Amino acid sequence: MQQEKISRRERKKLQTKKTISEMSLKLFYKKGLNETTVAEIMEEVDLGTGTFYNYFDSKEAILKYCLAERITSAQQTIEDIRTSSFNAAQKISQMLQVVGKTYEENQPLIGLYMNFYRNNENVDRKAPHGLRFKEVLSSIILEGQDNNELRRDIPPDIINEMFSGILQSTMCSNLELPFMENIQYKLSMLLEGVIKK
Hints:
The chain folds into 2 domains: 56 residues, Homeodomain-like (Arc Repressor Mutant, subunit A); 139 residues, Tetracycline Repressor, domain 2 (Orthogonal Bundle). Helices cover 71% and strands 0% of the residues. The protein is built from 9 helices and no strands. α8 packs antiparallel against α9. The longest helix is centred in the first third of the chain and has 30 residues. The N and C termini lie far apart (70 Å).
C-alpha cells in the first residue's frame, strides 16, 4: 500500500514538472525567455512561485530539460536502429532521418536553446545529449567496415564527420526545400555519389 502512494506521488511530481515545462515553453515562444518571469509561468499553471524551484533551478534549466526529453525519445529509436538487422548504410540513413525529424519537429525549442547559450558566456554549454549520437554512429561505421559494407580505407572518424556534416549543413541551409527532403538528397549523394553512372 505504501509503495502505491509513493508511486502515485512520483507520478504527480512528474506530471507537475511536465506541466510547468510545457507552459514555460508556450510563454517563451510567445514572449521570449528573458521577458517571461517565473511568477507568470506559475500563475499560468496555478501554483505558487516558490514551487517552481522544487522542480527547476532556473528558466534556462527548463530549456535543457525539454530538449533532453525530446532527445531521449529519439535516442531510444536510434538504439533500436543500431541493434536492428539492417546493413550499415541503412542504419546510418535511418539514424540521420530520426535525428533530422527530431530537429525539424523541435526547431523553436532548439532555436531558444541555441540563442540562450550563444548569448551567455557564463553557462554550462554541454549539450543535453552528450556524445551518444557520435558514439552510436561510430559503432555502426565500425560494424559496417568489419562486415565489408563500408570502405575500410577511410578512417571511421572521417565517415562519421561526413554524416554528421549532413545534419549540420541541413540545419544551416537557406534553400527553399523541406528539411527532410534536403537530408534525403544529401544522404543519397553521399551514399550513391553525384556522378551519373
